[in-house]
Specification:
Blueprint (H helix, E strand, L loop, with lengths): L4 H4 L3 H14 L7 H9 L3 E5 L3 H4 L1 H9 L9 E5 L2 H5 L6 E5 L6 H12 L5 E5 L5 H6 L3 E3 L12 H11 L10 H16 L4 H9 L3 E5 L4 H13 L8 E5 L28 E5 L6 H12 L2 E6 L6 E4 L9 H19 L4 H5 L12
Parallel strand pairs: 1-2, 1-3, 3-4, 4-5, 6-7, 6-8, 8-9, 9-10
Length: 361
Amino acid sequence: MTYTQADYAQTHTFKEIEQAFNLVAGFDWHSADLLRQAIEASSGQLHIAGIGSSVNFPVQNFIHLASRSPETAHINVRLLHDQEVIEASHENTSVLFISNSGATGEIIDPAKALQEAGHPHLYAMTTLPDSSLAQICGDNTILLACDKENAIAATKTVLGQALLLQATLFPQENFTRDIMQELSAHLREVFETGLEPELIERLTHARSVRLVGTNDGAMKELNLKLTEACSTRERPMNVHHYNQSEILHGPHQGFFISPEKDRHTAQDETDIVLLFDPPENRQELLQSTLENKTGVNVWAIASQDTVFKTIQIPQFNRAEFRGYTKLVAGWKLMMEIAQAKQIPPQDLDKPARLTKVVNAH
């Protein structure tokens, strides 16, 4: 049986991407009021507990943006995991627990521990008002404006979480109804942008894929998406992610080159590097380091032409939302690779081919 684009359009994965665009269009800046109060109550000191897609892009993008403005330089964010949450000192600090289901064991256990210890500033971000996490945090629960995900590849909740966190950093005029609708339309346009068949073919058969971009969490999240949604037992997706600076400085500069006597490694012809919006003033160095020295396949996904083979995507006119563009471009790759590999649509949503360990309360 051959699966078509129409078959994949019926998946929860595709439908929830569509719902993500609607969530953006309807986003209300005031929905982050409680989170804004949490940050103000602790003079900008915020600890966040979460795992996976709930933090990969939403929290890293939040940290990335907070560090770029004098107005938000006082916000000090630490991302903690599982036992770290229990062991850390949270004096004069608000603690935000993020879990879509509100039942993730690695989130519930430390939340209960801090509740029992009498911590006064515990907050939750979840989709379910009657979840275990919401019960622990009570009135300090921030509900996402969407229901839970049905597909394994979280999409709409990722954008919802990212917008809530980002809305604490910018004034209301950055999140007007018109801007949100423009952003929604832009993201939909990115998702509908046609991709070069050669790129999809190469990604489908790649021995390894390396995603390279800025330090806003988008590459880490896309690494997870491609791995969990597009891997098969016969053809697993061997994906790695890097920050731009990591392949221009230090030992990572030669991640395709053997340091032994400056000898090049023997590259498989299917290895591919995918650069997201490579800076114009770094493209020649990237080309020299990657393409010319190793012969590896280098492609770019960017809003303007580059020295590499390039998939051009639309650019949004507000820089603080550029990470969302990269994320959605990655979702498009995910859907195209899944179809090229002919992964059964129902398996794209709930992969029987993969084992996912779930610790729920």
